[in-house]
Design brief:
The protein has 93 residues and is an alpha/beta fold. The protein is 49% helix and 17% strand. The radius of gyration is 13 Å and the shape is globular.
Length: 93
Amino acid sequence: MRLYLAAPTRAAAELAAATAALLALGFAVTSATVADAIDADDLTEVVAGDLDAVAAADALVTVGDCSTLFEPAMAEAFGVPVVTLAEALAGAR
């Protein structure tokens, strides 16, 4: 099962822990591409790649408060279920 993880910018440690936990359970995990100091064309490519990953996921997993992020809204638009990390971990057991 392919999961896309979404987390607020300041939740790097939580995102890393969630990624490790889900990988250990056998999930394929991806998240937003980190892109520092890139031009507009590169940013467009990065965002397009992230949107493709959201659309291809079996579920989008939120780590922390993702209410202001675009990924959960895009997942819903693509028909991809949005679940919390707790729900994803509980469903894997």
